[in-house]
What does this fold into?
Amino acid sequence: MRRTQVAIVGAGPAGLLLGQLLYKEGIETILLERRSAEYVSGRIRAGVLEPGTVNVLERAGVASRLHAEGLLHEGVEIGFRGRRHRINLKALTGKSVTVYGQTEVTRDLMDARAAAGAPSVYEAEDVALHDIAGPSPRVTYRHRGVGHEVACDFVAGCDGFHGISRRSIPAAALSVYERVYPFGWLGVLADFPPPWEELIYANSEHGFALASMRSPTRVRCYLQCSLEDRIGQWSDERFWTEFGRRLGSEIGARVPSTPIAPSIEKSIAPLRSFVAEPLRFGRLFLAGDAAHIVPPTGAKGLNLAVSDVFYLSEALRNFYREPPGDRAESALDAYSARALRRIWHAERFSWWMTRQLHRFPGDAFDERLQHAELEHLFESRAAQASMAENYVGLAL
Ligand code: PHB
It folds into this structure.
């Protein structure tokens, strides 16, 4: 049996970043991941980093490529009724966001962990948590057909919404809050220079659309779609025709014709708001998507995972700082409430963005309220400041 201080389950950005922050504090970890390293680093996710997230990545020592290649954006645009309205993030908050793909953040963290020589086990099967309610938890798994066991002080559950960590907590010890939305997002990645300077979130009568980017030569775009839609129904041509219809002819005309820039990834994702409370059960801590999901409209998923693990790394640092006989759990006790406060603010904002920008089936009263809300946003500097403060991220 092997021993470590913190066993981290899940090697997405939450698990990898926690490992890196703890490594900087001299705290030992092992990282267990069900998938292969290639699968993890190939996943396409969102790409907008709050300045607070960039700060944490700097502290972790993984921000040099981000600073070299990330794109600083001082505003975002909202399209509505054939016009585009700019929210000037920089003027309203003094801050900008950085466009840099989660895929790249993950790759930088994987490189840093490899350079640190910290142990990672990819393709770990049947990961199971044991004795998490008591002081001596254990994690078991199989790797290449051989059973392994790790004894540890704490387990960090960073294994996402479908992972085993949250499911290892007795149902009676968790409260779950959830909202599912009656549509999905169809995303396309394609290689051509973005013909828009900043992100454009569009509320159109045909549904929501988002024009985003990953680099000076790569775009990422989304369309609100039906939950019944299948990828096969969406040829590139259909996607870009619909995109132009929703974003307006000015933007639509700038998209190169399909054969020049075929899509390199296309996927459909459902939208969900979800929070499980509290984030601690005995010696297990949840962080990132294992504990909460936001719809992607506010670009908060990765940023929340980063603030969770930042808080958790501070709590663990404070615990281990004391000599073994004197260790108090007060910082560890405070982790859940501290993280949940920020999580609920991001949940509210992501719900609000989703609510204002999509077409919801049915209710004409709700639709009128949505239009009034958007008009107010375009006319009120105070409303824009509120949106901008949340978009660049609340204080960590
Ligand atoms: C993305 O570029 O993938 C992206 C950007 C902003 C969002 C969601 C996704 O709100």
